[in-house]
Amino acid sequence: MKNLLRWFTFAIVLVGLFAGLITAFVEMRKEREQDATAETPVTAPSLLEPGPGGSYFLKLDAETQQRLGVKVAQPVKGSVKRQVTGVAEVLDGTLLAGQLNEIRAAEISLEASRLDFQRKKKLFEDGQNAPASAVEASEAALKQCKIALQAARDRLVAVWGPVLAEREDMESLARGLLERNVALLRVEFPAAARLLEMPQTIHFKRQNGDELPPGQLIGPALKSGPAMAMGPMFLAIVRTNASSLVPGLVVIAQADAGVEETGFIIPREAVVRRGGVGWVYVQTNGTAFLRREIPLNRPHPDGWLVSGEWENPVVVSGAQSLLSEEFKQSIMMLK
User: Which residues contact 239 (CB under 8 A, 6 or more apart)?
Assistant: First the structure.
């Protein structure tokens, strides 16, 4: 009787286990059927389409353009004077001051010698105590002083050139150089540089691109090397914030060559930078924008002057947003 009860209990448990497995299988099958009939996830279409030379068109509808603040404008024709680039060295003003002191000392000696000669000559002519030998010696000393003064002036011209040596404000200029209120630079342009005229204003910047105070060219500088191997050389004076230009400093110099170059003006706000290069977005049609590289070597008051054909408008507002959108889409394509 006990064995029969035990087998009966075992059978009930076994039936319950099979019933549970059947129920779990049915539920699992329902879930699979629901997954199979569920909606397929919606993937947003890419905004990039292949363009020329491995580039991509960025496709933006009118609503997206408005959201990104995109505005376009047609580049207009313009011109700038061609720039020439050279190097400039800040000169040491102590040498100039020393030479001016030498000239002043020679002038004082000359004046004293002249007065001595005139006094002895008059005494000799009046028959007083002034022998002819004293007059002759005084005259010789006067001539030596004249030669010494001329030699000092010649050395000034030989070092600095006539343009600087003949200035009427040499005394104040030398004082300004010593007090670092004025800077004097020797500017040299490449031998291939062609200048129609001497530029009036010259711009300086450090090797890292930091801007320095502009200067004024005052005239040609003397060349110290082979004439065929050197380009135009000038002297320049900087009077504003000259203390930043220490003697011996070598900087980059840029000036107008006097030659007009024509092209199209790309507004400054249209240019975006990536990888050290300037780019602009060109609208090829109502919804397509193509990123185009431009050189940034011809600045214009309104932006940058570029050559080539520019028949389509460029993005002048929202260009940075387009750049972000383009590279966001590129990252999505790689996933």
Answer: 176, 181, 182, 216
Q: Rounded to the nearest 5°, which phi and psi values hold at 226?
A: -60, 130
β-strand 76-90 against 183-188: which pairing, if any?
antiparallel
> In this structure, what DSSP letter does residue 168 have?
T
**Are residues 264 and 306 in contact, defined by beta-carbon separation less than 8 angstroms?**
yes
Helix/strand/coil for 272: strand
Q: How far is it, in rounded angstroms, from Cα 7 to Cα 13?
A: 10
CA distance 270 to 74: 11
Residues linked to residue 282 through DSSP beta bridges, in sequence order: 290, 314
Which residues in 189-198 are b (16+ Cβ under 10 Å) and which e? beeeeebeee
pLDDT in tens, 299-332: 888 999 999 999 999 999 999 999 998 888 777 6
Query: pLDDT band at 41, cuts 50/70/90?
Result: very low
Flag whether pLDDT at 102 surpasses 70.
yes
Predicted confidence (pLDDT) per residue in 235-287, tens digit: 999 988 777 888 899 999 988 777 788 999 999 999 999 988 999 999 999 99
- Cα 61 to Cα 53, 64, 287, distances in angstroms: 24, 5, 5
CA angle (33 as vertex; 27, 39 as ends), nearest 5: 130
Q: pLDDT-based confidence at 13, cuts 50/70/90?
A: low
Q: What's the mean per-residue pLDDT of the chain?
A: 82
**Cα–Cα distances in Å, from 65 out to 55, 84, 313?**
20, 41, 15
By the 8 A CB rule, do 93 and 321 touch?
A: no
